[in-house]
Amino acid sequence: MTEICAIILAAGEGTRLRPLTESVPKALCPIGNVALLDRALARVAGVGLTGPEEVAVNAAYLAGQVVAHVGGRTHLSVEQDGPLGTSGGVGNLRGWIDGRGALIGNADAYLADSRREPGKDIAALLDGWGGDTVRMLTRPLDANAVGGFSGQRFAGFSLIPWRYLSGLEPVQASLVSTVWRPAERDGALELVTYDGLYLDTGTPADYLAANLHAAAGASLIDPSAKITGSVTESVIGPDAIVQGDVTRCVIWPGATVTAEESLRSAIRAGTTLTVYA
Questions:
Q1: Does the model's pTM come out above 0.90?
Q2: What is the DSSP letter of 168?
Q3: Please, are residues 214 and 32 in contact by the beta-carbon 8 Å criterion?
Q4: What percent of the chain lies above the pLDDT cut of 70?
Q5: Measured on CA atoms in the order 128, 132, 133, 135, is the torsion positive or negative?
Q6: DSSP character for 78?
Q7: Which helix (H) or strand (E) holds 40?
């Protein structure tokens, strides 16, 4: 198989998740008490790609937090003047890619394997790949939705050969316009259907849904959390304090729910920041 590397895109501002992302980059928002970025890195590690020679992460918005979180686990590409978009971020890594194909994933993609076909995830993108076509992980397009690719929508990961990567520049642009649509016109775009749950976690509703899915219908409570109230089908982060009642909520690390509070379908950060989904 053609030599490949992996790139996790973690530079976005997460505007749809504000105010949660005003102080924390979207890539570090926790799902089931695990940062989205760490979930993405674990996924590419599952297909054998690890370390700074094989895996890169880009950062721009609140880049210092991403850099500190990643440490020496991957190659880091910091976009000093702000996010360059998905294409520009990859173009900024062109020298590091250096002739390889690239498995590129969005840090905010939440993927949960299908029980009917375990393993039909990003590994399917690599299976039998000859290094010439662009492959895209997809899910069926929602009813009445517009756009997409032959009735499918992007599901967080794509595999791109060097011939499409070699011309990318570190300027503001999207992979939709520089790679995916050109490959579609060339007859070189292969859609690989993903049979599990995919959420892009970009909105409070989808972010909450991903957390509740990770909790598998129960509550996921970090051992360091202090619970004196009632917790139902919720995710409680490290060092959180829950004195009141929470149902189908996400309580971030170090956050507090006072005894007088009763939260439903919400995300709590700090002592007062509450985002309802």
A1: yes
A2: -
A3: yes
A4: 95
A5: positive
A6: E
A7: helix 36-45
